[in-house]
Amino acid sequence: MTTRIFAALAFAGLLTGTASAADLYVPTPDQAIVTASRDWTGFYIGVNAGYADFDAAHGGDDTDLATLNGWQGGVQAGYNAQFDSIVLGVEADLSAAGIIEGNDTDHWDADDGINGLATLRGRLGFAVGDLLLYGTAGLAAANLDVDSESQTITGWVAGVGAEYMVTETVSLKAEYLYTNFGTVEVDGYGGDEFNIDGSAVRLGVNFHF
User: Fold this and answer.
1) Separation of alpha carbons 99 and 195, rounded Å
2) Does 100 lie in the same domain as 71?
3) Same domain, 86 and 166
4) Cα(7)–Cα(28) distance, integer angstroms
5) Does the global pTM surpass 0.90?
6) Would the CA dihedral through 105, 48, 176, 44 be positive or negative?
7) Model confidence over 119-148: pLDDT tens digits?
8) Most CB within 10 Å of its CB: which of 8, 87, 148, 203?
9) Domain extent for 19
10) Residue 156: Cβ within 10 Å count
11) How many domains does the chain fold into?
């Protein structure tokens, strides 16, 4: 009789333990993925720095170039909206620059070139957790200074980039941008036409809120 009582109590204890275990929440793999996914929606501001290399083809002749290269650095601000894994965004940036002719003075003086850049771009990206891969395109403007005559030139810009969240509110990014200003009549070179385009590689940090 005593043995049966102990057996009954042990069986009841086993059932209680099983029921308690059943009450524990174990997420499905799909739910776990959703929980771990980063939401990129929101505003951000940040800083960037990089290197640019531009060509200015005199009269559109690619063998008659003013070669401009140097640093650029500035600030950016933007907004992202995430839909599942797709991230749509807009970004504006403003940079100081020293993209100049340097030692190649066949056309302009050594310090002549681009000393400021700005872009307004859309972004289309694909988010994989903390990583965002994106393409970007939009409008570009620059301040061109040749022979102490300054003028604003405009064109288009396109590129690709990657951004990674390192904390809940801070991300690091790297991007490549190609900019084309088309045919420009350069005031400081007697109004001669130059086709100006070039590429830039930039690193940056964004602060999200």
Assistant:
1) 16
2) yes
3) yes
4) 36
5) no
6) negative
7) 999 999 999 999 999 999 999 999 999 999
8) 87
9) 2-31
10) 16
11) 2
